[in-house]
Design brief:
Blueprint lengths: L1 H19 L2 H49 L4 H15 L12 E7 L4 E4 L6 E8 L7 E2 L10 E2 L1 E8 L2 E3 L5 E3 L3 E2 L2
Antiparallel strand pairs: 1-2, 1-3, 3-6, 4-5, 6-9, 7-8
Helix pairs in contact: 2-3
């Protein structure tokens, strides 16, 4: 009886093994599909983060270049030209990422950390650089085309300003411009 009883346990174990043998094969396509979607998401999102960081750098360079010209009492068009030049130097193959309408002169209040657009005694330059399909190509994506998405609009903004102080002799002193936002 022991011998027969052992056979019955062994047979039921073998039957269970045979029934589960193909389960890995059935799960493989589902796991591969999930991995493909994760790869698509990771590559495209990573590329968009890089594009956004590059645009942020270009925006900061453009704002600093404009604020430096503004500090040296240059007129508005010189400030704008300098900002555009430095934006394009930092994104050389992207086209016109910065246009005149996206450059604003104004006053930066260092106490409240706020910007007010004005051309009367400005101490700050605000810029927004864009890759949005209007003046330059939007950022292409690689794998998201599977879902119908071919490109994504990306932008970056920065404000650079300098402080104006009056020394003890009543002379105006201007600090070196810095990115403030």
């Amino acid at each position: 009886m022991d011998h027969n009883g052992m056979m019955m346990v062994a047979n039921s174990t073998n039957r269970r093994r045979r029934q589960r043998h193909g389960s890995v094969l059935a799960l493989t396509p589902a796991v591969l599909a999930v991995l493909c979607v994760m790869t698509v998401f990771t590559v495209d999102v990573g590329y968009l983060y890089i594009a956004e960081a590059e645009l942020a750098t270009a925006a900061e360079a453009a704002a600093l270049a404009g604020a430096l010209k503004l500090r040296d009492d240059e007129v508005g068009w010189v400030v704008r030209d300098s900002s555009i030049e430095f934006a394009e130097l930092n994104e050389p193959n992207s086209g016109d990422i910065l246009v005149n309408d996206d450059i604003t002169l104004g006053v930066w209040d260092f106490d409240t950390r706020s910007f007010e657009a004005t051309v009367i005694d400005p101490n700050a330059v605000s810029v927004t650089v864009r890759r949005d399909g209007q003046n330059t190509a939007a950022v292409p994506v690689f794998f998201a085309g599977i879902f119908g998405l071919r490109e994504v609009n990306v932008s970056g903004s920065a404000i650079a300003a300098f402080e104006v102080t009056i020394d003890e002799d009543g002379n105006e002193e201007r600090s070196v411009p810095a990115v403030v936002q």
